[in-house]
Amino acid sequence: MRVTAAVLLVLCFLAVSHAWDCREIVNIKNLMQIDAGLGQVVATDTSQIPYYLVGDKWIRLPGSLKHITVGPAGIWGVNKADSIYKYVAGNWVQAAGLLKQLDAGGEQFIVGANMDDTPFCLTRSATVGYKGPGSPLPWTGLPGAVKYYSCGPFGCWAVNKNDDIFLMSLNQDCQNNGWSHIDGKLSMIEVATDGSVFGVNSAGSVFTRDGITASKPEGTGWSNIPMCMRMGHVTYDLGRLWVVSKSGVTMVCTP
């Protein structure tokens, strides 16, 4: 069975090599979620163990998290009870509030969604200044309902329970102009530090948004990135596309 799986994986790499050069990350197994930003990579596995990539080694972080994020706002995570934590000086410091998913990719501000799919934003000053329970955390509720939410330099992207896609212009003080509907369907979406947008649909196919610029943050359309196995999660940073399959295989791809 293991030999068969290895052969299938080789065939997979050959199948996508015409578009992206992919290789399996062999020293980490059963990842559930991964996030990359500013040259850093973090992840959680199916046992909710958080990791931080140093060179080619995955260093286990303390605690237990179902979702972890890294970006200009630092390293943050949430556990199975939706409790929120910020990584400060080698330890997780709990923050007020409850979120099921959050993202640190904005201009040093945090966004996330709670169990009711209500989106929230934490201002830059509160995000950067948070050191512990004594620091204020004025979470700002945002309009709409989203299940997954991610920000970059040109805007914030989100998907709702129906896999509809939305874009919002959001500044560091959480001021916004509401959501604009974007064509397509995705079950999760991630915005890179450079503004690139990638996502996965319910069938496990990977897509990237073309034509995104500061003057046209919505881009021009979606392009499929061929993968020969069903993917569950994707993230991108510094020319590297990290993908986690629904079966727990992690790959890193370069164009």
Can you walk through the features of this model?
With 255 residues, the chain is mainly beta. The chain contains 2 helices and 24 strands. The radius of gyration is 17 Å and the shape is globular. The two termini are 31 Å apart.
Uncertain stretches of 5 or more adjacent residues = 1-5
Mean pLDDT: 93
Structural class: mainly beta
Task: Please list the strands of the largest sheet in the order they lie side by side.
Answer: 1-24-23-22
Overall geometric form: globular
**Helicity, as a percent range:** under 10%
Radius of gyration, CA atoms, in whole angstroms: 17 Å
β-strand number: 24
Distinct helical segment count: 2
Strand content is: over 45%
The biggest beta sheet is recorded as: 4 strands, antiparallel
User: Helix and strand succession?
Assistant: HEEEEEEEEEEEEHEEEEEEEEEEEE
Could you give a short description of this structure?
The chain is mainly β and 255 residues long.
Main traits of this protein?
single chain; 255 residues; mainly beta; 4-stranded antiparallel sheet; 2 helices
Layout of secondary structure:
Blueprint: H1 2-16, E1 21-24, E2 31-37, E3 40-45, E4 50-54, E5 57-60, E6 67-71, E7 74-78, E8 83-88, E9 91-98, E10 101-103, E11 110-113, E12 119-122, H2 124-129, E13 140-141, E14 148-152, E15 155-159, E16 164-170, E17 176-185, E18 188-191, E19 197-200, E20 206-210, E21 221-225, E22 231-237, E23 240-245, E24 250-254
Family: Belongs to the tectonin family.
Organism: Salvelinus namaycush (Lake trout)
GO molecular function, one term: carbohydrate binding
